[in-house]
Amino acid sequence: MSATAVSVKPKIILTEDWTVVVLGLAIISISLSGLIIPAPTFGWKTGSDLFEKVFNAENGWVIFQQFLFTYFFAIAGTLLTGKSLKAILSGFPVVFVLTLGALLLAGNKTLKDLNLEAVIFSLGIGLLIGNLVNLPDWLRSSLSTELFVKIGLVLLGTSVIFGDVLKAGSLGLIQALVVVLSVWYFAFWVCKKLKVDDELTMMLSSAVSICGVSAAIATSGAIDGDSKKLSYVISLVLITAIPMMLLMPYAADYLGLSPQVTGAWLGGTIDTSGAVVAAGTLAGEEALKISTIVKFSQNVLLGVAAFAISVYWTYTKNNSETVKQAKPSASVIWERFPKFILGFMAASLIFSFVLNAEAIDSVKGSLKSLQGLWFALAFTSIGLETRLADLLNADNRKPLYAFLIAQTFNIFITLAIAYVLFD
User: Fold this and answer.
1) How many Å apart are CA 258 and CA 187, to the nearest integer?
2) Which is nearest to 153 in space by CA: 27, 324, 13, 29?
3) Distance CA 420, CA 280 (A)
4) Is the Cβ–Cβ distance between 422 and 290 less than 8 Å?
5) What is the pLDDT of residues 4-62, one digit of tens each?
6) What pLDDT, on the 0 to 100 scale, is given for residue 5?
7) Is pLDDT of 313 > 80?
8) What is the mean pLDDT of residues 101-114?
9) Which one, of 389, 307, 366, lies nearest residue 159 by Cα?
């Protein structure tokens, strides 16, 4: 092999969660220092509106500024997490252009009146292209879904008053404890009845009861699970989250639920943070805040759950030397704890107690626009990397049935608990 053929793997400086905390707080600090990226206009009703309000030179320059700003932070995230720089350099502009198309569609007055948000169009465009076109490796490897959505979540902290976090968070933690325990054991029981293998049982039970993708990844790490099984569970979580995030806000409206109950229901039921944000956005600002806080309360249990699962698997289910040598300890709780929550809380504390009203007003429009952009970028990425055909394989039907049954139970039990606690 020639010297030029040898590739050097980029060095990992920070984990993805710590990277998100650093980048999210850096964006906030830059804005507070006076470098404010203005929010572009995407609202239009007619073709003439589109050209006069959106496709004019001034708005085009604002959009380009947002592109450069997010491009810079996407590259920084890639360098810090040790991913392929070449992939993000070429792939991010593609994802941004596709997301821009979604923002333009969402800006149409007719579609906006139907409460169709940008994240829905981002997801739809991504799914359409991802399932009809064979994506090149450089584009697929550039998709940083978790990075994008978690940066948006840190920025969301700037609009959540800390008093609300304490109030709803305590109720959310009570809800999370009841939901996680009941749904986890129900999912475990269903998987055993359907004779799903032990590894898939643990991953599915954690994913449907705690926080979706993150829980599946943490559980797989705790039991040294098969990466192919993990990929399948992640596909299940992402695909089933799509109809849930679209239909549940309308179901809540039909049932006449209050914004608080709606947010608690969405946050406690939907399995991914990004989908919770999308559903909360459809349900309204108050529901978005409550759903995010409740989901964070549920995420806090991830470290404890990963620790308990690692102990259970090591001492009762798996006697392999590999697992025996990885002695579970209290440090596993901290290792599995979703660090991006710290960034969200820090942002909330700063905007609740440190800054004055004038400083907040000067940056809130810009940060809200950037928050929405990061979420939209994340959902374009989710659509591009999700393969609907994964669920059509006959070998995967039993885990699919188990997941759907457990998720149905989750929807009803969480609704009852949310109504009792938040009504």
Assistant:
1) 29
2) 27
3) 20
4) yes
5) 444 445 666 888 889 999 999 999 999 999 999 999 999 888 888 888 888 999 999 99
6) 44
7) no
8) 85
9) 366
What is the C-alpha separation between 79 and 85, in angstroms, rounded?
7
The answer for 273, left when phi > 0, alpha when psi is -120 to 50, beta otherwise, is: alpha
Structure tokens at 19: 């990277």
Q: What is the pLDDT of residues 242-284, one digit of tens each?
A: 788 888 988 988 988 888 888 889 888 887 777 788 788 888 8
Give Rg (Cα) of the chain: 21
Cα 382 versus chain centre, distance:
10
Instruction: Please write down the long-range contacts of 341-345, taking CB distance under 8 Å and 24 or more positions apart.
Output: 341/296, 341/299, 341/300, 342/21, 343/20, 343/21, 343/24, 343/25, 343/150, 343/153, 343/154, 343/157, 344/24, 344/153, 344/154, 344/156, 344/157, 344/160, 344/296, 345/157, 345/162, 345/165
Res 297: pLDDT: 76
User: How far out from the chain centre does Cα 175 lie?
Assistant: 20
The pair of structure tokens assigned to 238 is: 């992402």
pLDDT at 170 over 80: no
pTM of the model: 0.71
Residue 381: exposure state from Cβ atoms within 10 A (0-12, 13-18, ≥19): buried
Q: What is the pLDDT of residue 4?
A: 43
Would you give the DSSP letter of residue 356? -
CA 141 – CA 360 distance, rounded (Å): 37
Helix and strand totals (H; E) in the chain: 20, 0
Determine the residue type at 197: D
